[in-house]
Design goal:
Blueprint lengths: L4 E5 L4 H12 L3 E5 L3 H9 L6 E3 L7 H10 L6 E4 L15 H29 L2 E6 L13 H21 L4 E8 L16 H6 L3 H12 L9 E4 L8 H8 L3
Parallel strand pairs: 1-2, 1-4, 2-3, 4-5, 5-6, 6-7
Helix pairs in contact: 1-7, 3-4, 4-5
Length: 248
């Protein structure tokens, strides 16, 4: 598939930027989407001369998604749904209805709309790959992520599975990557942002990008349904591990 068109969302920073750089290095042509055009152009400048189309858009808006797809030079062979969001005021006693709706739209509605938009073209060409960057928050509730984010990412995991259930017969594959903590700018939106020392122990954006590249290099008859990837130093499990280490 290398050399085809890859559409990467949330490409202006963090995981999306790292994915774009990795795919460009492997010979893909890129379409980059996010809310901030300046950040997307910064990513495009990092691609070593690889062809890149900058398509700023609000992916929670169906009309904006349709307009972005209409500007693509061809149907993408690969869609990487990476765009997402969270908020500092994320817990039940802090969330407003508007906050909750915004988080569900950013983390579930957006990848639903982009997946929906590329399916006709992928069916017409006889196949395609969608990589969904979800989260371990979609695999179970945690005290860190907040209920709206957890609910949206859980739905995101299910969205990916449903794509395979209905569209595998058309040669379309969806891989859901569920990372643990990744050292990206979104961490600054936590009520208590992690320290530089903690961020150094986390997954780095390039680690997730390597997983995306691995999936993209698999042959068309292979569907890797889901990947869960965490830091070796998994802070969610650290208290339990420390307790066990003190046992006689």
């Amino acid at each position: 598939m290398s050399g085809g068109l890859a559409w990467v969302t949330g490409a202006g920073s963090g995981i999306g930027r790292a994915v774009a750089v990795a795919l460009a290095g492997a010979g893909w042509r890129l379409a980059l989407t996010g809310r901030r055009e300046e950040a997307l152009r910064e990513t495009a400048a990092m691609l070593g001369g690889a062809a890149a189309l900058v398509l700023p858009a609000d992916l929670t808006d169906a009309a904006a998604v349709e307009a972005a797809v209409a500007r693509l030079p061809e149907s993408p062979a690969l869609l990487v749904n990476n765009a997402g969001a969270n908020t500092p005021r994320r817990h039940w006693h802090q969330l407003s209805a508007a906050d909750a709706r915004g988080l569900v739209d950013a983390n579930l509605t957006a990848p639903f709309l982009t997946s929906l938009a590329v399916l006709p073209g992928m069916r017409a060409r006889g196949g395609g790959l969608i990589v969904q960057i979800a989260s371990v928050a979609g695999k179970g509730a945690s005290a860190v992520s907040g209920p709206a984010y957890i609910a949206a990412k859980s739905g995101f995991v299910a969205l990916s599975a449903s794509l395979n259930a209905e569209n595998g017969i058309h040669g379309i594959r969806s891989t859901c990557i569920c990372p643990g903590e990744v050292a990206t700018p979104i961490l600054d939106l936590r009520p208590q942002p992690p320290t530089a020392e903690d961020r150094a122990r986390m997954l780095q954006p390039e680690d997730v990008a390597a997983a995306v590249l691995f999936v993209a290099n698999l042959p068309a008859h292979v569907c890797l349904n889901e990947i869960v990837i965490t830091p070796t130093f998994n802070r969610d499990q650290a208290p339990a591990a420390q307790a066990v280490s003190k046992l006689p």
